[in-house]
């Protein structure tokens, strides 16, 4: 009688592999949403930097003055004021980026200072905002900017 060799995995080996895969999937499911939120926050910071560059370019063409919006204004309006053809938007719609400045309002080049901000996802509590000011400062605050005065010290 000739004995034939059989090759393959035993049920125990397959169960061990499935258990290890289950642990790995569980780990990724827990950490992946946090990584996505961090990536969106990074995009928000980058978008506000683009607005800052656009505002400085606008000011260079307008005797050092920025578009005047003396109430909180979504940056979609600001894009029109500074001539952006493609307007960066918050990656988590319907959130918006915001702008406020001094001056007369209505978008005319009469403002001397401004504040841009976006709501960050991390940390979730307390609510945190990424702020970019006309004086070049940027950072986080936990109160919503309400005037053109830079809230960063």
UniProtKB/TrEMBL annotation:
Keywords: Membrane, Methylation, Transmembrane, Transmembrane helix. The chain crosses the membrane at residues 12-35. GO terms for cellular component: type II protein secretion system complex. InterPro entries: Bac_GSPG_pilin, N_methyl_site, Pilin-like. The keyword Membrane applies. One of its GO terms (biological process) is protein secretion by the type II secretion system. PANTHER family: GENERAL SECRETION PATHWAY PROTEIN G. NCBIfam families: IV_pilin_GFxxxE. This is Type II secretion system protein GspG C-terminal domain-containing protein.
């Amino acid at each position: 009688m000739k004995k034939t060799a059989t090759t393959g995995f035993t049920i125990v080996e397959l169960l061990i592999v499935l258990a290890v895969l289950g642990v790995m999937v569980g780990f990724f499911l827990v950490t992946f949403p946090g990584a996505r939120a961090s990536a969106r926050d990074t995009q928000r910071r980058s978008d506000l930097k683009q607005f800052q560059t656009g505002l400085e370019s606008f000011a260079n063409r307008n005797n050092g003055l920025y578009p005047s919006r003396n109430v909180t204004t979504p940056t979609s309006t600001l894009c029109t004021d500074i001539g952006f053809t493609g307007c960066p938007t918050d990656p988590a719609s319907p959130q918006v980026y915001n702008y406020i400045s001094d001056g007369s309002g209505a978008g005319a080049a009469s403002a001397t200072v401004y504040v841009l901000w976006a709501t960050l996802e991390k940390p979730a509590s307390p609510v945190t905002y990424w702020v970019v000011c006309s004086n070049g400062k940027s950072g986080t605050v936990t109160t919503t900017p309400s005037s053109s005065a830079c809230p960063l010290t």
